[in-house]
Specification:
Keywords: EGF-like domain. One of its GO terms (molecular function) is scavenger receptor activity. The chain is mainly β and about 260 residues long. The protein is built from 2 helices and 15 strands. The strands form 5 sheets. Strands 5, 6, 7, 8, 9, 10 and 11 form a 7-stranded antiparallel sheet that branches. The protein has a two-stranded antiparallel ribbon with strand order 1-2. Strands 3-4 form a two-stranded antiparallel ribbon.
């Protein structure tokens, strides 16, 4: 499981059984032991998943939660393939569409906090076009433009909240074709947070919580305070309330005693 002149370097965890050549560290058996990669295939040197991701994951290492996995896809003009191929995790199953104006819309079906977007698309022409990406609360294109350039993006890092993502491409020629293989959207459903969205947001949050800390972003339900909306307002004004948590009451009483000693 080690390589190098003094066998001091660990073999990549992506190597099957973590076995690698002593001279260069490349995987002996190839493939990937990481079950996040589709078909368990990854690059021996970089550990990047070569066929895509499975289990609602996205990103080059399939280490991030993909809220686009169960999304609704609209492609104009329509291709012959099913639009669902755009969000199936397989970067080698693609939809081909053609025209001077091409639109792909991803509906993740509920407002969610998003931190990154991954796109796997191929354009048939080297002639420049305009590539624009919008995010919105409705199917309208004009709400919020997060990308506009003549080059095609592969990754966009931008924290925002939306339900619809729309990619639009415009070309001077009419016979330009685009191969749309995968669109991954990194985020969590509104009630969850964490790297793989396995933690529940505090129950008293009003809306979604921060994906990293779990703190409530849009305030608390009535009667609650604090970053995680865990402080009962009644505990602040009515110390003897039976609804107060003992620890909170203890802290409050200690604080009052401390203040009385000062004054």
């Amino acid at each position: 499981n080690f390589w190098g002149s003094n066998c001091e370097i660990s073999c990549a965890e992506s190597c099957i059984e973590q076995h690698c050549y002593p001279g260069n560290g490349s995987c002996i058996f190839g493939g990937c032991s990481d079950t996040n990669c589709l078909k368990s295939n990854c690059d021996n040197d970089t550990a990047v998943c070569t066929d895509g991701c499975k289990d609602d994951r996205t990103g080059p290492y399939c280490a991030k939660y993909n809220i686009a996995s169960n999304s609704l896809i609209t492609i104009l003009p329509n291709g012959n393939e099913s639009p669902s191929l755009v969000s199936d995790g397989n970067i080698k199953s693609c939809v081909i569409t053609q025209g001077s104006k091409i639109m792909v819309q991803v509906d993740i079906q509920e407002m969610s906090i998003v931190t990154a977007i991954y796109l796997t698309l191929n354009v048939s022409s080297v002639i420049g076009g305009n590539h624009t990406i919008y995010v919105s609360n409705s199917s309208s294109l004009s709400e919020n433009r997060i990308y506009h350039n003549e080059t095609l993006p592969t990754e966009i890092n931008d924290t925002t909240i939306f339900r619809y993502l729309t990619y639009e491409a415009r070309f001077q020629q009419t016979n330009i074709s685009i191969e749309i293989c995968e669109i991954g959207i990194v985020g969590c459903p509104p009630a969850l947070y964490g790297p793989l969205c396995k933690k529940m947001c505090p129950k008293n949050c009003r809306g979604p919580c921060d994906l990293v800390t779990g703190n409530c972003l849009f305030g608390c339900s009535n009667g609650w305070r604090g970053d995680s909306c865990s402080i009962d307002v009644e505990c602040i004004t009515i110390v003897d309330s039976m609804t107060c948590q003992p620890l909170l009451v203890q802290v409050y009483v200690s604080f009052i005693s401390f203040m009385l000693q000062i004054f």
